[in-house]
Amino acid sequence: MSNSPTTPGIAxxxxxxxxxxxxxxxxxxxxxxxxxxxxxxxxxxxxxAPCITACPTEIDIPLFIRQIQAGQPEAAAKTIFDQNILGGxxxxxxxxxxxxxxxxxxxxxxxxxxxxxxxxxYATETMLARNAHPYTRATATGKRVAVVxxxxxxxxxxxxxxxxxxxxxxxxxxEKPGGLNEYGIAAYKAAHDFAAAEVAWLLQxxxxxxxxxxxxxxxxxxxxxxxxxxxxxxxxxxAGVNALGLAQEDAPGARDAVDFIAELxxxxxxxxxxxxxxVVVIGGGMTAVDAAVQxxxxxxxxxxxxxxxxxxxxxxxxxxLNHAANEGVKIITNAMPVAVHANGALRxxxxxxxxxxxxxxxxxxxxxxxxxxxxxxxxxxxxxxxxDALARAxxxxxxxxxxxxxxxxxxxxxxxxxxxxDLTVTAVAQGRNAAESIHATLMGAGx
Amino acid sequence: xxxxxxxxVGIKSPNPYWLASAPPTDKEYNVVRAYKAGWGGVVWxxxxxxxxxxxxxxxxxxxxxxxxxxRLLGLNNIELITDRPLEVNLREIKKVKRDWPDRAMVVSLMxxxxxxxxxxxxxxxxxxxxxxxxxxxxxxxxxxxxGMGAAVGQVPEYIEMVTRWVKxxxxxxxxxxxxxxxxxIRKPAEAAKRGGADAVSLINTINSITSVNLDTFSPEPMxxxxxxxxxxxxxxxKPIALNMVAEIARNAxxxxxxxxxxxxxxTWRDAAEFLALGAGNVQVCTVAMTYGFGxxxxxxxxxxxxxxxxxxxxxxxxxxxxxxxVTDWQYLNLNYVTKAKIxxxxxxxxxxxxxxxxxxxxxxxxxxPDRKFEVIDAECVACNLWVNVCPVQDCITMEELPKGAxxxxxxxxxxxxxxxxxxxxxxxxxxxx
Lengths: 447, 433
Prior knowledge:
The complex is a heterodimer.
Chain A: E1 10-11, H1 17-23, H2 33-41, H3 50-54, H4 61-69, H5 73-83, H6 87-93, H7 100-103, H8 105-110, H9 116-129, E2 144-148, H10 152-163, E3 167-172, H11 180-183, H12 194-202, E4 208-212, H13 222-228, E5 231-234, E6 240-241, E7 254-256, H14 257-265, E8 275-276, E9 278-282, H15 286-297, E10 302-307, H16 318-326, E11 329-333, E12 335-343, E13 345-357, E14 360-371, E15 374-377, E16 381-382, E17 392-393, E18 396-397, E19 410-412, H17 424-446
Parallel strand pairs in A: 2-3, 2-5, 3-4, 5-19, 7-15, 9-10, 9-15, 10-11
Antiparallel strand pairs in A: 1-8, 6-16, 12-13, 13-14, 17-18
Chain B: E1 6-8, E2 11-13, E3 17-19, H1 28-37, E4 41-47, E5 62-66, E6 72-77, H2 86-99, E7 104-109, H3 115-127, E8 132-136, H4 150-153, H5 156-169, E9 174-177, H6 186-194, E10 199-202, E11 206-208, E12 211-213, E13 218-220, E14 230-233, H7 238-250, E15 259-262, H8 268-276, E16 279-284, H9 286-291, H10 296-310, E17 338-342, H11 352-360, E18 365-367, E19 373-375, H12 385-389, E20 396-400
Parallel strand pairs in B: 3-4, 3-16, 4-7, 7-8, 8-9, 9-10, 10-15, 15-16
Antiparallel strand pairs in B: 1-2, 5-6, 6-14, 11-14, 12-13, 17-20, 18-19
């Protein structure tokens, strides 16, 4: 170890080599069989269970938990995958406290829900660990579908289409498939290269041809895809990032949090990844938390998350915020960035306290400065690179409940559409549903 | 502190908890540890006749049924009577009784079904100065194949005959241990009484197979691919045991016959229930085998606390208190009308009551779109199923309709006590007075 958390500026190797493995390992290890049995026993098998309603993919949660109880975790996994082919990743990244576990009657009763997320992980892991793929393709239909974006929406769509016997070409601008699962979430949520393993497992269905390094617009247009395919699904996510709108916001040391996370995720030896002694993260969503926590885990001495509104408005769940606080991240709310102070390199960030005024968020007049060797901007992502021909709903692509865009033969889902809360699980639901809609349309037309 | 001392057929013990005849009472070492821990008495593990002792299997002797967190709910065994030499057991019994004179020492016996065999063993036991004998007519496996144990216990005439021999050749108190593997438990109890038994003890273990290995298709516990039925005990058997104890306690022929209650006593409450149903003391095994002898502290302190709360100063005041309330179905009050009531403040909206009632009972509950569950009094037959499936204690209660109220289900006015014997639908009904 050449450096320490107190080494000034931006430096790599702030920790002992063995600390990196420990810090970025699974946040929670998987249940063992007995733990799963005990946790499963807490499920009441509710009638018309509220947890199912709360799940965007509508997994039959009481059924899969009962299957764990009955000693068949792989059958439980099948129940999960039937609804959510990325059930393994969702078990790791879903904000369960606001979804299934938030709806669990035991949450209402005793503030301690059935640990649905961890049970889902246990079930899915048993099947993934064996690398057993439980689905087979239907007879080939001869229909060709282009799926753009190999993130959660695209993967779910591609798998369902392939299952129905269609030939899918899955395009993605990145080198690896997986989208945000591979590039955009904290490493400790998907340790041991889980995102890549899950995609490899998913592709075992067959009938999906992967085209990496292919960017919509640069490498082909929507019209090209339409010409060569019977249908197109766009799961292109939000490739753009919002800017602070401040002078010097691109000073050395300032960058977008999504880039930092992506770089971290693709860094083999994390001791080579430089991190500031003083890190400031601007934003209040999951991306901000993932950037802040991982900064601490890389050895930053001081990490502060600053959000312009109150805690109740933060996109990150309480669970995530508590985790960040436990990892030593300081969270400041009701403060907006007003100036970047740099002298060549970044030195300080200046913030103004805010309050809700008549014209919206207004500065109170009081300001403060935070030392900052590094600033990660996590104030939201925007639609970028989407074909102009597609109608918008607000700042996203307009789709109907089945995922149809304004152009016939073109469907869309995931974060690029406005349907959800930019959650992995929502993207999976939208991709899956669009696939069913595409299937119905193609087979109806061909019959 | 209530006085827990008991005098059961002349055998005194500082509390009503005896360790049942089983591995925990197999030898001096265990029994002394039990006495030190505070157990009131033991029934020494069953002795057989002189000669080479029996042998046990050398593979698993126990099978089990568990709850989710491996809580032992039921245990099954295929162990036989003592496999130690008779003279060793007798020597140890004598020594332990001499060293622990205030504790009950009863010796369980099982010898071939002939008078000479019983006469011989009784002589040996008397020499130990033990307090009494328990005749093992219950063991359901192994020994029964040799004409002993349950093979005797299932034939009331044999029970009577052997009991008579024992009383004839011994002055010791004689407790006859009954097998539950029989259609009517009153018959062997009556036979024991006719033979002169001082008491009966029950239940012995229940014929059982705890599970089947679905790979090897062998029953558990498995010995080299095969399994034999064993004797089931532990918390799971308590309801069966309670009923059998009550049947004997309220039977005109046997109501004055002392009972040593056995079967799934796990906490003080179980013991109190056995006592209330007419047992003069209880015998315990599985809970000790699960947690060790230390649990006697909870058993005694719990019973004592309960008795203090109820104002009982001696165990006798509790014994049999529930017996008058055990009756036959035909005497139950058909004019006792209750309705389920859901406490909406406690309800967590799991909907299990709804599923249970809608699918398997009387469709007497409504569910609103916002998951509010309400009783439909006009349909509710008061079956109590919801109370049992509701995960929240006291959320659903059964409320009695007062006399004079109209039952919205039947339209009938709640009237005075009336039972099936006088009901108009009963072809055998006697004319009402």
